[in-house]
Amino acid sequence: MLEIRNLHVEIDGKKILNGLDLTVKPGEVAAIMGPNGSGKSTLSYVIAGKEDYEITEGDILINGNSILEMEANERAAAGIFLAFQYPLEIPGVATMTFLKATMNAQAKARGEAELSPGDFIKAVRGAAAKLGINPDMLKRPLNVGFSGGEKKRMEILQMALLDPSYCILDETDSGLDIDALRIVAEGVNALRSKGRGMLVITHYQRLLDHIVPDVVHVMAKGRIVKSGGPEIALELEKNGYAEYTDQAA
Amino acid sequence: MSAVTRMRTPAEAALIERFAAEKATLPGAAEARAAAFARFETAGLPSKRVESYHYTDVRALMRTVAPDFAGKADGMRQPETDEPRISFFNGVLHSVSNLPPGVSCEALASALASGTARLGVAMGQASDAVVDLNTAFAREGVAIRVAAGITVPGILHISLTDAMAAAMPISSRPRVIVEVGAGASLCLMESITGSDGIAYQVNSVVELLVGDGAKVEHIRVNLAGDKALVLSTLAATLGAESELMSLNFTSGGEVSRHQSFITYAGENAKLRLNGVTMLNARQHCDNTLVVDHAVPHGESRELFRAAIDGEAQGVFQGKIIVRPHAQKTDGQMASNALLLSDDAAMSNKPELEIFADDVVCAHGATCGALDENQLFYLMARGLPRAEAEALLVEAFLDEALDAVSHEGLREALAAKVSVWLSSRKTAA
Ligand SMILES: Nc1ncnc2c1ncn2[C@@H]1O[C@H](COP(=O)(O)OP(=O)(O)OP(=O)(O)O)[C@@H](O)[C@H]1O
Ligand SMILES: [Mg+2]
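Predict the joint structure of the above. Result:
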């Protein structure tokens, strides 16, 4: 279980998260919707372990244990995966080299054996094919010159290969064309499992048509202001956030 | 002249005394030696008051002169290799092995005595105090000739300081003159290696005449010990339509200065000068270039990459001169440094001296830390910080290493980069 308790976060003295409570159970797919600037990406960074933030109050726990003292790589090894809203370009590092380094690092941290070179290539090729990723792209430097949609697919490829327990998808649908959206959503759905929790951040109902969430949370001004079933997303589509931003004010 | 005579340092006094004692026995080139020594005697060792030595104060860094190696080179084993190789033992020429057909090698002393080689042939209009010192005193060295039109297979390896393992610090001044005939091609590696903990001093000069249409790759590898003072010069002249790629690859030495004086002698020559520098602890490394476009239609590309850790200091001085009639010159120079610790430092001094109007010249210098956002991305995928850093540094340095066309050599150098990075990791 991923639990966020009364989380208060500041950056450069500016409050961004204001007592946020959220729980993602194993097997659950939770969606977060909320206006621009409400703190969704900040929440995802803080969970993943980015250092620029000051946590003034509250806690983040996996299976009852606080992860606040853990470095980003330790959190990754503990099963957290963040699909970035804006994946970084890493010049000079071939995608394949990067994938191998990350998979080996996580295997090592978890005390598992590294994949053999043959099994590694097979795993990558298989996962790439499912996501419609051209194998030639894997030879290119990671994300360098990739289109917006290609970068998002690459995030899901990494997610599939790294086998995380908690996936946070930050606007994975933005920048995807209609077909890519379907392919990526299928990729995500294929990773839905009893043991794996997902936190899907999105602005659009159309992603939730493909990835049907168990629960939808509305975030405004750094807090969860409403939680409920998939019907909330439909309401938001109709009425916008006015009601929540007023309420949170 | 004003009477501001500075006190001689012990090193300067010793060198003056030594020249007087030795000059009668130095082989050949008496005039060149006397002129070089006279310049030294007037100016002394270059201090930071000399503009081109501003960042590397040789006068302050070389307070004393270590003695020359007095023993024999016999103690060294014949290198076990099928590659063509010329080895020096503690600065003394020791062996020449496996030279392929078309490549000849003569000891410096006999080449100078017979006049088949000349000191300073490849210096163009450049003048330099460190080269002057080598010129004045050089005894040990070789003159190499590569016949026109031949392609020398593999790598010709000149090991300048092999087994610099004497129990006491010594100094050496090897001089190598390489004449590459028209249309020939050669890959030349010079290496400076040696034991840690010994304050030995090297002042090596390689002069390279690249014939018309010839292609030369020159790799200078500085893996000197951690107390060594390395002064290393490449002087090259480029014939018409020739190509030179020269790489400075450095992780050694306490204080190192690598100079490259390149002169375009013929039109349409292409030059690439690259640098891969890895420094830590209190190392100091200075890459100084003077690229002299003396004729039209020359192309030059410089890419110097440095990863600087600890309290180390990097220096890059790159001067591109375009002479008045050297139209259509195309020069681009970049120096990029990654500072891996708060105490690491880099000084970049790019200079363009352009006297012609129809030229394209540009330079760029950057200096900064690793990108925290990239590091976070890699760490969020499970890479520990040190590994994430290593991956980024490796990619950064690789770009400058790419110019090495010999695959085996490139991989061997890449492996040295990995070793350097993992020693950082374990130190962290
Ligand atoms: N490094 C920073 N320095 C200052 N303010 C920041 C920083 N990072 C984020 N913020 C601010 O925090 C607020 C929340 O940003 P965040 O990116 O988390 O929003 P979001 O909900 O993901 O928005 P969007 O829907 O547009 O992606 C914004 O007002 C943003 O400007
Ligand atoms: Mg966002």
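Residues 15 and 136 of chain A are 44 Å apart (CA to CA).
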